[in-house]
Amino acid sequence: MLSPERLAQPDYEYLAQRHVLTYMEDAVYQLLENREDISQYGIARFFMDYFNSVCQGTHILFREFSFIQATPHNRASFLRAFWRCFRTVGKNGDLLTMREYHCLLQLLCPDFPLELTQKAARIVLMDDAMDCLMSFSDFLFAFQIQFYYSEFLDSVAAIYQDLLSGKNPNTVIVPTSSSGQYRQRPALGEAGVPEGVEASLFYQCLENLCDRHKYSCPPLALVKEILNGVQRLTFYGFLGTLSKHPGINQALGALPDKADLMQDPAMDEELERLVVRSRLHRTPRQHRAKEPGATGAPRDKLEAPEKAPKPSWWQPE
Amino acid sequence: MIPGKYRSVSGRAANNVNCGLHLVIQPSSLPEKNKVEFKLNRDTPSFPGRLLQHDLERNYSSRQGDHINLVNSSMPSFPILQHSSEEKSLYSDRLTLERQKLTVCPIIDGEEHLRLLNFQHNFITRIQNISNLQRLIFLDLYDNQIEEISGLSTLRSLRVLLLGKNRIKKISNLENLINLDVLDLHGNQITKIENVNHLCDLRVLNLARNLLSHVDNLTGLDSLTELNLRHNQIAFVRDVDHLPSLQRLFLSFNNISSFDSVSCLADSTSLSDITFDGNPIAQESWYKHTVLQNMTQLRQLDMRRITEEERRMASVVAKKEEEKKRESQKQSLLKEKKRLTINNVARHWDLQQRVANNATNQDRKDSASPPQDPCQTEGSTISPFPEDTGAVDSGLTSALQSLSVIDTHLVEVDGDTLSLYGSGALESLDRNWSVQTAGMITTVSFTFIEFDEIVQVLPKLKIKLPNSLHLKFKETNLAMLQQFNALAQLRRIDQLTVDPQGNPVVNFTLWKYYVLFRLSHFSMQKINGTEVTQNDMIMAERLFGILAHVASSELPQYHLISILGDARKKQFRYLLETKGKKPGIVNEENNDSKRLVGENTNRATLNYTTREFYNEKLEDIKEKKKFCKMYIEDLVKEATEINMKNEALQKLWPQMFIELVRDAVIETRNKNSYMKLCLQQITDQK
After folding, report:
1. Residues in chain A closer than 8 A to B534 (CB atoms)
2. Chain A contact for B368, CB < 8 A?
3. Which of A104, A273, B555, B599 has CB atoms 3.0–4.6 Å from B521's, for a disulfide?
4. Position B583 pLDDT exceeds 90
5. Where are any strands of DSSP class E within A131-250?
């Protein structure tokens, strides 16, 4: 923790790199918003709550998109929250459209932009048939890299386009807009024009990019690994491979590995409890509807909570 | 047969003997004893065979023993009838030649004063040879084979013309018979009433058993009292109101099926007796009272007197029918108006949607860098040329404005259903509703209204229509799951119907489960017509239960409170605190209090704010954040200054410390001089 490099950095840089100011500002903003309530139980307690929630990753729930996007930690927390809340959807085996996933995202963040979801969907579907259904895990991993590394991916897209059109890759490339539209791939099928770009050249450009820019990039080693395996590659091919690489997942640390994606024992237990409680909640009400005279409480005791029949895929551990 | 009126009181029917010429003269004025009958000549040779042949060359002169001589005429065709002079003087004005097997009209010589001529039951095919009988008043040709009315042009005195049971196809050649009183053409093949308009003295017209399909062209028959049209194929009747004397009209056994087809009868003031039996109209339930109501002058219907009672009943029933008709007319008018309004609202809605689509596409296009690349937006395709889009857009907005002049919304209350079409209809919830009407409404249906607008009106709905249990949404732009969160604020929903038309949310796989999950406290019975089963509820809980858990227990306290608002704060805090204090006890109390609260509080944080409000909120946030940023910057500046000072101190401190120590050591090297120095310092201080 107390490394010499850390102490060597000038103050502002240090603060900026760890996004300390963002959280401080947000804490003060929350304080402003709820000052009457917070003043009741003390400001110190408030700050404790706030930073605890930042550590746990629950601070991004139902917040505006600009906040969620602000720091890498926020993004990772959001990804994790999304996974935890909707893992059950994936476990159920439902395949959903891009729009539906976007709805689920919006449940957690009301103004989440559609473009990001669209781009994530493009990675899964290889820019083809955008109305296709996607599985939860596919979408989640694609969405992970798209959201966490958005700026990086935008720059990569620009680089790719340049390489395709044969421009000099070593010129400084600045993406014109943060939500830049990906231009359509050039028409394939012309005789003699190979698809995609050359891998080694591509890697060089990416290396330059990662060195130059401040925003988070995936570990270069992983990128190198991916690009070493192939001669040529397309943009979405590259992204697809990137999203499925387990190393990326581990580097981010937000989501569990693909194999364990559907497992969350603690939550499953909680869910069981909720389900049981909801059945209790419902049946007495129905009974009460038929017999208006009876009271509620003793009835609860009489009805032993019967376990809900477990479907075959349910394996709480 | 001669019609009864013209039969004499003491008349004897003609004998049915068919042999030989049988003359019967029935004088009506002579006394009984002077009745003369000519004897039958029974041993006539077999004439029938020859007589039945329509052989105009027949020579009857070979007969014998007749008192009447049929003498050979100079013309080879017709027999000539000659009376003996005796008979001529006695019965000079009547001549009966019934059943004489005549195939032609014989020439009747020397009978110019003849007034009555009877040719019944013969086989005559043409009316001929009677032109000289210019005093003829009564001509009976019943039951012959006449095909055409002709040969009557000289009979200007004719008053009774009986042509029943012939083969006449057309009424014609009656021009000169202006004195005609009775015209009997029953049992013929007449298809059309014509050429009778000049018969202004005609009192009885019998056209029964013909082939008439309609009745008109009856003008000019000013004296007509009785018109017999039984057993035809008449479907409608006209011109009867132009018959000023018509009293009896017989229309039995025709094809009349509605009163409209005989509507002229209502205008006839003279009619007192009418028959319709055997017509389709007589089978109708409204037959009697319609006729009675429309023809108040009638005395007899279908040969039965009309009683006062019947008339009264008829008018009562008719009035009721009238009212019913008026009601149904009003209803259909209303329905039409409603349909037009709904169409209008639909058009309006359509235009709005297209304008909105174009606007969003325009925005996207603006943000995109290269304009010549078509960008793929979900759903709608846009033209690659911004100018075109702009032109279409302006066209649409102007069309939108022109539509708003007409009715743009519709509110309809139909028993237990309140239907709202168009966003203007939402204002109707502001109106004063009578407790009875409001209490009866159990279903509210929204069509062509933006869901976001409906959300704003839901609190009013909750208060004004407390019994609304079923909500229906069609063409309301329900596109996101979180929009259902807004429905949680209502008191109760038993049924929810979201029509796929105009509501993209229905295309989602999980929408029903989300609704069941979020609105679980309503215990909904049906969604889109299908029953909600226990399994559905469990599945919904399974799918989204964790979301609720995360949304409640994992939210930091301050955030929870800010979302829930004042009213819930206390309840929620109480719940959380009690939960925390007694973790082991079965959550009975919690269940109870949850029920009291009325909503599963663990999902109470899942709210929906409409886009407008949200954008406003974001604006607010920006302001506040700016302030926070500035504040923090100040703090940071302070902190960095302090830090700098601290670091500077850190750097300088060793040096300073050494100097301090050195100074102190130097000072205290000589104990005595140091003591002196200290004492001096003390005295100086005083």
Report:
1. 279, 282
2. yes
3. B599
4. no
5. 197-198, 232-233
CB nearest A278 (choices: B541, B618, B629): B541
Give the residue on A whose Cα is nearest the Cα of B617: A64
- All residues of chain B having their beta carbon less than 8 Å from the beta carbon of residue A130 are 376, 378
If we measure between CA atoms, which residue out of B428, B446, B432 comes closest to residue B498? Answer: B446
Do A46 and A76 belong to one domain?
no
Q: Is residue A152 part of a domain?
A: yes
B632/chain A closest Cα distance in angstroms: 6
A160 alpha-carbon distance from chain centroid: 24
Q: Angle at CA B597, nearest 5°, toward B592 and B602? A: 90
What's the whole-number average pLDDT of chain B? 77
Q: Is B509 a member of any domain?
A: yes
Q: What is the pLDDT of residue A316?
A: 46
| Tens-digit pLDDT profile for residues B238-288 | 888 888 999 999 999 999 988 888 888 888 888 999 999 999 988 988 888
Chain B residues in contact with A280 (beta carbon < 8 A) = 591
Same domain flag for B419 and B535: yes
Which B residues, 531 through 550, put their C-beta within 8 Å of a C-beta on chain A? 534, 537-539, 541-550
Examine residue B483 and state whether it is found in any structural domain, yes or no.
Answer: yes
CA distance to partner chain B, nearest, from residue A230 (Å): 30
**Residue owning tokens 């308009």:** B197
A315 pLDDT higher than 50: no
Residues A152 and A214 both lie in one domain:
yes
pLDDT of residue A102: 92
- Whether residue B430 sits in one domain with residue B342: no
Q: What is the mean pLDDT of residues A43-56?
A: 88
Contact A15/B482, CB-based, under 8 Å?
Answer: no
Say yes or no: B460 and B542 in one domain. Answer: yes
Residue B393 neighbours by CB under 8 Å, 6+ apart: B355, B358, B359, B362
A22 in contact with B, Cβ within 8 Å: no
Predicted local distance difference test score (pLDDT) of residue A291: 41
Read off the pLDDT of residues B114-126 as tens digits, 9 standing for 90 and up.
Answer: 889 899 999 999 8
Q: What is the pLDDT of residues A252-301, one digit of tens each?
A: 887 888 777 777 777 788 888 878 877 776 654 444 444 443 343 333 33
Q: Are residues A76 and A33 in the same domain?
A: no
Looking at B522, B546, B570, which one is the last position of a domain?
A: B546
With 80 as the cut, is the pLDDT of residue A41 above it? no
In terms of pLDDT, which residue wins out, B357 or A53? A53
Same domain, B318 and B419: no
Q: How many domains would you assign to chain B?
A: 3
Given an 8 Å threshold on Cβ–Cβ distance, is B537 in contact with A278? yes
**Does an H or E element contain B677, and which?**
helix B671-685
Residue A24 is part of which domain span?
8-56
- Show residues of chain A in contact with B629, CB under 8 Å: 25
Residues 6+ apart with CB under 8 A from A46: A30, A31, A38, B558
* Same domain (yes/no): A76, A222: yes
Distance from CA of A107 to the nearest CA of B (A): 6
The total domain count for chain A is: 2
- Inter-chain contact B592–A296, Cβ cutoff 8 Å? yes
Interface predicted TM-score (ipTM):
0.76
Does residue B659 surpass a pLDDT of 90? yes
Segments forming the whole domain that contains residue B448: 410-546
Predicted confidence (pLDDT) at residue B327 exceeds the cutoff of 90: yes
Please name the residue ranges forming H helices in B441-565.
Answer: 451-464, 511-518, 534-553, 557-564
User: Is residue A138 domain-shared with residue A95, that is, in the same domain?
Assistant: yes
Nearest by CB to residue A34, choosing from B544, B562, B639, is B562
B636 close to A (CB below 8 A): yes
In a shared domain, residues A51 and A110: no
Instruction: Specify burial of residue B402 (Cβ count, 10 A radius: 0-12, 13-18, 19+).
Output: exposed
Same domain, B338 and B429: no
**pLDDT tens per residue across span A157-166:** 888 888 888 7
Which one of A46, A60, A61, A183 would you mutate to disrupt binding with B, by most B Cβ within 10 Å of its Cβ? A61
**Residue A49 distance to chain B (closest CA, Å):** 6
Tokens 């600009």 belong to: A66
The answer on A73 and A51 residing in a single domain is no
Domain boundary among B337, B354, B371: B354
Beta-strand (E) ranges in B403-478? 410-414, 417-421, 443-447, 470-474
Residue at B348 is within a domain = yes
Residue A184 lies in a domain: no
The answer to whether residues A96 and A218 belong to one domain is yes
Residue B519 lies in a domain: yes
Highest mean pLDDT among A161-170, A225-234, B48-57: A225-234
Is pLDDT above 90 for B228? yes
